[in-house]
């Protein structure tokens, strides 16, 4: 394998590995929320806003991966540069994944709380916050 081919291998792998995340972002933006941890769009208060938030986070993850490709090309086998790009990639992607997990948890809490309140009021019990049925 030539030096040029070897220098382009890792950036090419990074470019290819971002494609599934981009596809997921597009699908979620189109309303396929069930792809994200089985979210039920019919139980969400505002499924369009949730889809926009989750697809934006997925797209940012893909962008972070895509930006690692020129970083690895710049590193070109230099161990300290490669380590720096890898650490930056890990921090960016993991931070965005935590934000994505928190957004999914918030969406799940939203529809679970709403369903629990609806079931309580249907049974005749009063809402503790408002005192209403």
UniProtKB/TrEMBL annotation:
Alphabetically ordered keywords of this record: Membrane, Transmembrane, Transmembrane helix
Taxonomic source organism: Lysobacter capsici AZ78
Region listing for Disordered, in residue ranges: 113-133
Domain of life of the native organism: Bacteria
Bilayer-crossing regions: 12-33, 54-75, 87-105
UniProt-recorded name of the protein: Uncharacterized protein
């Amino acid at each position: 394998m030539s030096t040029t081919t070897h220098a382009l291998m890792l950036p090419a792998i990074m470019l290819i590995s971002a494609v599934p995340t981009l596809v997921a972002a597009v699908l979620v933006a189109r309303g396929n929320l069930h792809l994200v941890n089985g979210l039920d769009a019919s139980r969400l208060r505002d499924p369009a806003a949730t889809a926009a938030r989750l697809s934006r986070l997925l797209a940012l993850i893909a962008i972070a991966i895509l930006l690692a490709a020129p970083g690895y090309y710049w590193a070109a086998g230099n161990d300290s540069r490669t380590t720096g790009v890898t650490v930056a990639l890990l921090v960016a992607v993991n931070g965005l994944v935590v934000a994505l997990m928190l957004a999914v948890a918030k969406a799940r809490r939203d529809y679970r709380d709403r369903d629990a309140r609806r079931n309580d009021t249907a049974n005749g019990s009063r809402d503790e916050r408002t005192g209403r049925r």
